[in-house]
Amino acid sequence: LNFRDLIEVEPRNDGTIDVHLRNLEYDLTRSIKKVVYGFQSVDAVLAAMPQPAKLTLFVTPDTLPDGLKDAPNTIKQVAQKIADDSNGKFTFEMVNPDDPQAGVSRQDLQQKYNLQPIAASLFSPESYYLHMVLQVGDKGQLIFPSGDFSEAEVRSAIESALKRSSSGFLKVVGVWTPPQQPTQNMFGQMQQPFSSWNTVQQQLGQDYEVRPVDLSNGTVPPEVDVLLVIAPQQMTDKQRFAIDQYLMRGGSVVVAAGNYAVEPDQMSGSLALKPLDGGLHDMLASYGVDVQKSLVLDPQNEPFPVLVNRTVAGLPVQEVQAVNYPFFVDVRPNGMAKDSPIVANLPAVTMHWVSPVVVDESKNADRTVTTLLKSSPQSWLRSDTNIQPDMKTYPQLGFPVEGEQKSYPLAVAIQGSFESYFKGKESPLAAADTSADSQNQAQPTSAPADAVGVIESSLDTARLVVVGSAEFLDDTIFNISSRLTRDRYLNSLQFAQNAVDWSVEDLDLLSIRSRGSQAHVLNPMTEQQQSFWEGANYVIALLSLLAIGVIWNMRRRNETPMDLLPQPEYAEIDEEARHAHV
User: Fold this and answer.
1) Residue (of 1, 154, 179) closest to 73 by Cα position
2) pTM of the full structure
3) Using an 8 Å Cβ cutoff, are 410 and 375 in contact?
4) pLDDT at residue 360 is higher than 90
5) C-alpha count within 13 angstroms, C-beta hemisphere, residue 566
6) Which of 218, 227, 381, 533 could pair with 294 as two cysteines, CB 3.0-4.6 Å apart?
7) How many Cβ atoms are within 10 Å of 388's Cβ, its own excluded?
8) 218-240: pLDDT as tens digits
9) Paired strand residues for 227
């Protein structure tokens, strides 16, 4: 940590700068934790476990597809090698639930672990088990290698599961963002993409190992502990399948699932919204989370900086003024879940161009659902994507108040067992491999990914966080926000970081981070309250001046005149001074 890592430099309006110390306790604790966890080994974690870890492979060899016949032996070899080097801290067992002597039936697996068999094919009545369950104490974790069943892939999956079961490893955050492709302006010139998400990745990189993930192969790397999906759009079924199956394996997914993205209007030079297509809307709806295709407007909002031209003493002057912008919904503690660590001690969070997130109560009846953020009771919905305010027609807010005014949920967190979006459907990997085989008859070197089939339900450890805004993590929005208040956008970054902490059950730094230098904003006030305090300021100032005048006048009247010395004494003093001078 050098000097620049420990201070914050903020420019003042008069051109000077303000340098102050950051949250030193958090910076030191975070750095120590990251270094120590980053150099831990699997052997060290196994040795530190108070209870041994047990890996059980539930497999039905008689019904396995041909591409997975060798997978049980590969898993056995890798697991036995880890067990031999663990000094009794890791054990392995293989169980066939179809064997009457096993003591465990398929029904027992469904009741105890919620493990559903995988269909051998879409129209086949046969199903099979090839599930690894890692048990550490009273916690169970489902392991399923992504891609093939090579020794390296199986070992990576087992070691990643052991790391997730321990608190002594540096967690890995996989981040998916839309492809960044240059665009053309109205003059045909190439320009950089308008949106980027570098700031949030740098923020997460302070506590975790952040890796960009490519979901085009239909799988999520097994070492990823939490998957962050930002602004999903133009996704293929293979990419959706990767996210779905990662969640079915008991993974944690955080989705910034807004339906709209901001872009510059080349004709007017202002900002405009474009609808996002090909995202995760239908898949999230199958989980019981509906990100509605409308926008929330709230009179309690973060102002929008507008550049205004004025003439002062005959000279043109440009200045930034703050105007009400209802699309920047300002959520305060009274609109947050008080018991959730994700929003613990946050003074405010701004959701930009956010859509309401409605939870289906029937589908989520057996899950733990927490509404993290809600708008104020005076908010309303708007389906028109025109985001330019009309201050002449609507001088107060710039937009008309339409429909019902009430509080709308903006972000939710769900934990429990989910049902796959691809249940009863053909795996996209199988369809892609069939198409490829018809064009290229190549012999596979390992078990094909499509042989795994579709995992139709998850364990109850799966976690899903859905936020109705894709823009609250955009670097461009951070730049806009910082024009008025330099560090207010840090609250949005902390909200995202807290969501990742909760997803990986790493809550050690939450209380320390909350004492950091995020923006502390004033409580929102109504127009009546603003008018009251404005008048009170004038009254208090006038009364203070009057009180000072009265006190000064009273003190002047009560002053006692100074006693002067008699004249003879002055004459005697003068005579002595004259003789001394002579």
Assistant:
1) 154
2) 0.74
3) yes
4) yes
5) 3
6) 381
7) 12
8) 989 888 989 999 999 999 999 99
9) 174, 253
